[in-house]
Amino acid sequence: MIRSAEKYIDDVITGKIAVSKTTRLTFERHKADLLVAPENGWYFEKKAAQRVFDFCGFLYHLPDKKKKVPFHPEPWQAAIIYILFGWKKRNGTRRFNYGYIEIPKKNGKTVFASVLASYMLMFDGEEEAEVYCAATVEKQARICFDKTKRMIEISPALAKRAKVLTNNVSVPSTASKMEPLGRDSDSMEGINPSAAVIDEYHVFKWSNNIVFENIQSASINRLQPLIVIITTSGRDKDLPCFEYRNLCIDILGGIKKQDDTFAIIYTIDKPEDWKDPEEWKKANPNWNVSVRPDRFEDEFKGALNSRTKEVSFKTKNLNLWVDAPTVWIPDERWMSCTHEIDINETLGKPCYAGLDLASHIDIIALSLFFPDLNGHPAVRLFFWIPEEKVKEKEDKVDYKLWVEKGLMKTTPGGIIDTDMLSDDILEIFKQYNVLGFGYDPHMAHHGTIQHILKGGFPVERMDPYSQAHMNMSAPTKEWEKYVMSSQLEHFGNPVMRWMMRNVVVYVDKNGNISCDKKRSREKIDGVIASITAIGEYMTITIGGNKEIEEYELRSV
Q1: Distance CA 137, CA 143 (A)
Q2: Rounded to two decimals, what is the model's pTM?
């Protein structure tokens, strides 16, 4: 199975096996990690993966619910096992403590979850192991639990080592146990999990997320716990699964660093290509195995005739989050906006400033917009963050690294030092020809604006610029045009790259657009500051234009 796993990984990377770009990221990350493993304190041990494959040799399952057959991992399953269990930390423990596997229905999701659960119970070498098949409520959790229990019962080598009861499977020789777990379970408190499989995470509401949170906190004393989430996609972006999925995508894309988390997402590349049979295969690795093309075609035909079935087909068969907001501007388009212009060429050049003050305890962003820098519009960003915020790591991005690289500046304590911030902005303004400075008047109480005025910046160049939806529409469209046409120069700022991936836009019935801070998944301060700077530029240079007047760019 080692060879099967390695071949699958190589075939995906070389394009012999067609998968989406999102899926490919998992295997590209694995290959990249092999190159930097020693310096990160990791190593890859094939024997650890082989141990899981050896265990699979003892397993039987009932694919047709009639006749038991040996379980043989499909190549994609072998690749997941290979990476998930093969990576080790320097001390010999597992590198990955979390696994996120998002895959459409009928791809053997529950069987695969049962394989992982039974291995963690019986073959992981953990004394007094506690394994939980978890879901929102115990009834849902029992689906995976009962499947795992049945697999153990029909596998002779395992059945003789286990004691199987209605609500519990135990291994007396290691004092280990496996149980179902939901929010309504009697055993919610006092657990000490060594492993858990969380089924259908997409239906977890925040009130149910206590199941996941309890497992996380209760496993802290275990040496190498493993929590695996296996789910299809869902329809509600406001639930925990979509937030966790976004985190995983950022980890795979190198935007966030979380070395203890493995993730793989099987889906299609473009939602608009959902009718393309070639795309169907990308999302379904068990195509022609457990996913039958004829049945799939029948479900597709049903989706063509019913909006309800269309949504179900997209979410369950193609792993598309239909009602979730799509990325406003694709990352590859954003990264095309670099034109090898030296950032120091901005010094002394005419520009327009936009300031997003947010709150005293969060990121502050200043953007300088240059309408023409060597033939390109350009933005130069400055960020400030409280020192305590860097230590929190609440946003799961490496603020410390960005501070060390000079991409962010800290102010002491847990809140922004407005005097220090204002002094910094005044010093920045001295290096440029700032023709206009826009700021949100609703944050004028911040103290920064008054300090900048007292510092001598010309009052006639300061502009209270409202962030109201209608006020932001024209400059937001202009920003979109600059980026989508690859005209913009952003100097490859990684903080802005992260923020651009977080943006969700609100579009009203008249086609006016603005960045929606409330619905955007994480910080977008730099984007708001840049759009404000463009709005300031448009107000000053073409403020008499009928279209601009219509957007009331100077309204408060």
Answers
A1: 11
A2: 0.75
